[in-house]
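Action item from last week, closing it out:
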Amino acid sequence: MREPYESGRLLEAELAATPLEQFARWFADAVAAELTEPNAMILATSGADGVPSARSVLLKSVDARGFIFYTNLQSRKGRALADNPKASVVFPWYPLSRQVIVIGDVESVSRDEARAYFSSRPYASRLGAWASAQSTVIASRDVLKARYAELASVFPDTGSPDDVPLPDAWGGFLIRPVSVEFWQGRPSRLHDRLRFSRVSTDSMMDDAAAWTLERLSP
């Protein structure tokens, strides 16, 4: 079940000067290759008990600060990040024989930023955020459907982005990277692994002077 990795290379001379620019290049390649949900990333967290958990979530934006996603704040990942605000994400772009591996500190985005994104979502998705107490046990799917129908009468679809308000228990998280690794599969298991490491706690992803570059053994 092993596939040969012969689709590319990653050399220091060809790397962008910053992790933000390099991520933008590879993300554009993933979009151009028409990968299914190129913004999907595996998010790994651990709570106060130290037990790790992982799941697939969608990257919603990336900028000089870092990587942003949104979720129910009372979900398993929301509670874990409240207890231990550190995380790792992996972008698994298998058809391109590429991965991007991010490790970072996590903080909540502002309510204004969360509200602006929430308002951009389709009506049904906004209502679904209210209907689901994410990660809690429910008796059946009928419970969820009944809750959704009830909320549809409370917040009818008016065509306005404000017809469903931002739930108190819903928001966003910003992962501020301490390292960003770009992994390119190569033949004979001699993969290319180039890692940007943050120099200081206030480093931004678009500042070349704020990062050191290292090649890792595969």
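Closing note: Residues 131 and 148 are 5 Å apart (CA to CA).
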